[in-house]
Design brief:
six-stranded mixed β-sheet; six-stranded parallel β-sheet; globular; 31% helix; alpha/beta; 516 residues; 28% strand; single chain
């Protein structure tokens, strides 16, 4: 059986995904046959993969990114359980790539045993196939209210005897308390699996950090395996957070004389927000997620992204006043793009007895179509052309489908069999396809059309930007940071030999002590 390591974190967004990806890339460079794994992911950023049986399935986008770091194709076993929140109280459960229904907290408890067993089985199979499996935890392992049902953090590590490292985000502040407290709140058996720490997103003189690292080692009996620096280029494939108002990434200066501004509406239940990252790698293209009407009104291109709750997010769009700004933007002949749920919002009407149960709802009316929700979910990889002959690849994940359309409506894409997909009406574009902007030629042609419609005559699309090359540089950077800043010899010993013997247990006073 292959070696393994669990990368846990003190919080969500501590950097587990990117650190795990960096370790995967480092191991691949060593010639190790390595795979990623996350037993349960809670995210609306997913991607479609094709299983060995030829069927399409969903996994979290972070695990697809980690698979790319390993140099292998993504598959459903890398993320056997995916929870896609549709509200604060319920989530859709995707098991081994297939949606099996929506659950609330009470339902999830009854389903937990089945999900845990599927995750344990998937990990066991991967460890038989690969030399090493790098596992990513979820949230924090110190969520003691959830420990009894945990199978993604220390519950997984205990089951599979995985050594565990804990990532702390120093940029949030309180990193030493977070690292110490994470270990101290675990029971003795869990603590003995935690081998040490990694501090992430450090800025400044590392000498100032040394006294804290030394004291943390004395208090816990565990080393810090390294300190990873803050790096502005680590923004691709974000899973837990998107910047409000700030420009995404670091766009290069424009190839021409003018910039192109893109405003992506930050919907409450935004889904597959990573679709616009490929736009942000283009020189002269500024992309920002925003809920500010003024930023939306000033943008050259407005994007309504995917949504896990289309009707609810449409209602929010109206109640927030943003719908009026979007309508004014489109009626002025300025470019507007709807992707998946955002596309559905552009329809005349939405018939939804499945996701929201609201029945027929009036939509924004910017495209002459109607959308109906089906209990059957479309999950597919898609290939076609746009603008006549420009090749495009993408993927589809949706319950809604176009049930009625003006026969004269022009499609945005054409499948290989001649069927149309999506819609173009003047300056308004819509599609169910995700990931289409990773097709370089299509992205360039679309941005050129946006610039024309927005009157940005000085904008020029760079002729040679490659999104796949940008992603490879991102993954190589992660591998470089791991090699340069972490104690990789110690990490390899953990992976190869398992949890170290004799790790001390931190004892806390009993809950009854100190009470008046």
């Amino acid at each position: 059986m292959g070696g393994g390591l669990l990368v846990a974190g003190t919080t969500s967004d501590a950097g587990k995904s990117v650190v795990a990806a960096g370790i995967c890339r480092w191991l691949r460079r060593r010639g190790v046959k390595v795979a990623p794994f996350k037993a349960q992911n809670m995210s609306n950023n997913s991607i479609v993969v094709i299983g060995p049986d030829g069927r399409s399935g969903e996994i979290g986008r972070a695990q697809a990114m980690q698979a790319a770091a390993c140099g292998i194709a993504p598959e459903v076993r890398f993320n056997p359980v995916l929870l896609k929140p549709g509200s604060d109280l319920s989530s859709q459960v995707v098991l081994l790539g297939e949606a099996i229904g929506d659950v609330n907290a009470a339902d999830f408890r009854s389903l937990r045993r089945r999900l845990a067993q599927a995750a344990f089985d998937a990990l066991a199979e991967l460890r038989e196939t690969y030399d090493v499996v790098i596992c990513e935890g979820a949230g924090s392992p110190a969520e003691i209210n959830l420990r009894d049902s945990d199978y993604v953090n220390l519950g997984l590590a205990r089951h599979a005897n995985l050594p565990t490292i804990v990532i702390g985000d120093i940029d949030r502040g309180g990193v030493f308390a977070s690292l110490f407290g994470t270990v101290a709140l675990l029971d003795a058996a869990d603590q003995r699996l935690v081998a040490g720490f990694v501090i992430n997103k450090f800025r400044g003189d590392i000498g100032l950090l040394r006294p804290g690292l030394d004291m943390l080692a004395r208090l816990t009996g565990r080393p810090t395996f390294g300190v990873l620096p803050w790096h502005t280029d680590l923004w691709l494939d974000a899973e837990d957070s998107f910047p409000y108002g700030r420009v995404l990434g670091r766009p290069a200066p424009p190839y021409g004389t003018e910039w192109l501004d893109v405003a992506v509406v930050r919907l409450p239940r935004i889904s597959n927000a990573t679709d616009v990252e490929a736009l942000a790698v283009e020189p002269g293209v500024r992309v920002r997620f925003t809920v500010e009407p003024s930023e939306i009104a000033a943008a050259d291109l407005v994007v309504l992204p995917g949504s896990k709750s289309t009707v609810d997010d449409l209602a929010w769009l109206r109640s927030s006043g943003i719908a009026k700004v979007v309508l004014a933007h489109a009626r002025a002949g300025r470019p507007l793009l709807g992707i998946c749920g955002g596309f559905q919002m552009l329809a005349r009407a939405i018939h939804d007895d499945v996701e929201s149960g609201r029945g027929t709802v009036a939509a924004l009316g910017l495209l002459p179509i109607e959308v109906t929700f089906s209990a059957t979910k479309t999950v597919a990889r898609s290939v076609g052309t746009a603008f006549g002959s420009v090749p495009v690849r993408g993927y589809e994940i949706h319950h809604g489908y176009v049930s009625a359309a003006d026969p004269a409506l022009m499609p945005l894409f054409t499948y290989a069999d001649g069927r149309g997909e999506g819609a173009v009406a003047g300056s308004v574009f819509g599609t169910h396809w995700h990931g289409m902007f990773e097709s370089d030629e299509f992205r360039r042609r679309f941005l050129a059309e946006v610039a024309r419609l927005a009157g940005r005559t000085g904008f020029r699309v760079a002729p040679d930007t490659s999104f796949s090359a940008v992603r490879e540089r991102f993954l190589d950077l992660l591998g470089d940071l791991v090699e340069e800043h972490l104690d990789t010899d110690s990490l390899w010993r953990l992976i190869e030999s398992g949890p170290p013997e004799g790790l001390p247990v931190i004892s806390l006073p009993s809950a009854s002590r100190g009470r008046p």
